Amino acid sequence: MQTIISSCEERMKKCVASLESEYQNLRTGRASVALFDKIKVDYYGAETPLNQVASLSVPEARLVVIQPWDKTLLPLIEKAIQKSELGLNPNNDGKLIRVNFPALTEQRRKELAKQSKATAEQSKVAIRNVRRDAMDDLKKKQKNGEISEDEQKEGETKIQKLTDNYIAEVQKIADAKEKEIMEI
Fold first, then answer.
1. pTM beyond 0.70, yes or no
2. Over the stretch 116-162, which tens digit does the pLDDT of each residue have?
3. H/E run at residue 136
4. Cα separations (Å) of 84 from 36, 80, 133, 161?
5. Of 13, 93, 104, 131, which has the fewest CB atoms closer than 10 Å, so is most exposed?
6. Between β-strands 97-100 and 63-68, what pairing exists: parallel, antiparallel or unpaired?
């Protein structure tokens, strides 16, 4: 029974981690180097993550500065950012690239908040699916005589408590992200 509960908790943690990862790539009005994590640059024929060929910094709230270690990469980095789904326009001055983050319009903030809620809801559904699987496992073990009915009920109570805790954590993260998005 303990293995089912610990497996359940591990899977729920992964759901929360996945949500946090998704939220890092959700663009808000603030500059963040995490937005560039998925951007890859063609570096001598190999698709290489941007953060492995350049240093990224956030000197101001709405500006990211990208300084490649190899100056010949400047046009390639610029192209990769333009091709990305971030919708940003990089400025290349021959030494480094500056990426300005324009302020989001009210309509765009509302769209992002809606997207944020949908992502959080998907995480909650994933957590509930993990709960369902764990409950089914407990029922099978009880049916096969591996655990008693009391142990099954105790396990179900623990799994429900875990589910409630992780759903509350997802909601807390979602509320914080929505607040960040709606800031001007």
1. yes
2. 999 999 999 999 999 999 999 999 998 998 888 899 899 999 999 99
3. helix 106-143
4. 9, 6, 37, 41
5. 93
6. antiparallel
Which H helix or E strand runs over 167? helix 149-182
> What is the mean pLDDT of the segment spanning 82-109?
84
Whole-number Å distance between alpha carbons of 151 and 165: 21
The span from the CA of 166 to the CA of 66, in Å, is 37
E strand or H helix at 150, and its extent? Answer: helix 149-182
The CA distances from residue 100 to 13, 31, 34, 35, 120, in Å, are: 34, 8, 15, 13, 28
Q: Are 54 and 37 in contact (CB under 8 A)?
A: no
Look at residues 10, 3, 57 and name the one whose alpha carbon lies nearest to residue 32: 57
Q: For residue 166, what are its two tokens?
A: 């992780």
In 3D space, the residue among 156, 157, 167, 158 whose CA is nearest the CA of residue 126 turns out to be 167
Q: Pick the range with the lowest mean pLDDT from 6-10, 27-31, 176-180.
A: 27-31
49 forms beta bridges with 40
